[in-house]
Design brief:
Blueprint lengths: L2 H21 L7 H5 L3 H11 L4 H20 L24 H5 L4 E7 L6 E7 L4 E5 L6 E9 L4 E8 L2 E8 L11 E7 L4 E9 L2 E6 L3 E9 L3 E6 L5 E8 L3 E6 L4 E8 L3 E4 L3 E4 L2 E3 L9 E8 L3 E6 L1
Parallel strand pairs: 2-6, 2-8, 3-7, 3-9, 8-10, 9-11, 10-12, 11-13, 12-18, 13-19, 14-18, 15-19
Antiparallel strand pairs: 1-4, 4-7, 5-6, 14-17, 16-17
Length: about 300
Amino acid sequence: MSYRKIFWGVVLVLIGILFILKNVHVIYFDWVTIWRLWPLILILWGISLIPVKDYLKLIFSVAAIGLSFLLVSRYDKTGYYDFGWDNRNHRFEKKWGDDDWNKGSAGQELSQPFDSAVQRVELNLEAAAGDFRLNDSVPSDKLLTFWKKGDIGNYSMTSEDDSTLRVINLKIEDSHVKFNNKSMRVELGLNTKPTWDFNFDIGAASIDFDLTSYKVGKLSIDGGASSIDVKLGDQSDLTEVDINAGASSIDIQIPAGAGAELRTETVLSSRNFEGFKKVSQGLFRTDNFNKATKKITIDINAGVSSVDISRY
């Protein structure tokens, strides 16, 4: 049997094992981290050119892939090795502290003043690359605050009002973006009074948003090799979620009291839909969807991704 046939069979088996280990929380990884391992392609290509027997090529290839997966499992989201476990879900994670903001290049701060006439806000964010999180301590006189620390470039912010709606555009000015999520950290602060519609183009970014305190009307995310971790609340009667992603890790938490409907098209993906029952091909619902006063609709179109939806 040829090396090529054996090799791709082994690769698919190892990828499946990796997803299983992630789903049972033995290891943690996100696709942004795996993106950094692209040189592995060159290594495997080089192994295929070595003039040795096929079984030796297979051994070298498996060893290279196994070592790479081990490195991924030891590599945390912020780009630093961290061998400590957190208590929530046994995954590797590093919390931000004051020291994180004192290191690296100069930062940037932007803000929007609060206006009681604004009842709904549409936030269009070009995340590109970096680590994005929410800051829940926002001054009452601010509608939005934005803090950036890193070397990917500054952001521009524009806004316009249409009656009770304000549209805010946050766009990165430097188009030469590196695929390195440790080179920029962003904290967004949002006022809890208006209803928020989010449109995120996150590229190769990592977002970790706890939106339980916010009235979310729409959440639209367009991601590539990204890590998406979102916790939704029940502040709105209807929340619409639309996610399009490539090689991404998608983790969504929804309140158990809200009725939820999920439509999904995934290819070669790891999927876990807690509390959902299949209605038809690509359509899933929770038992309380029809009777619930608070509803969440989720539409996910993903490539080679890990999709995990849980209820709390």
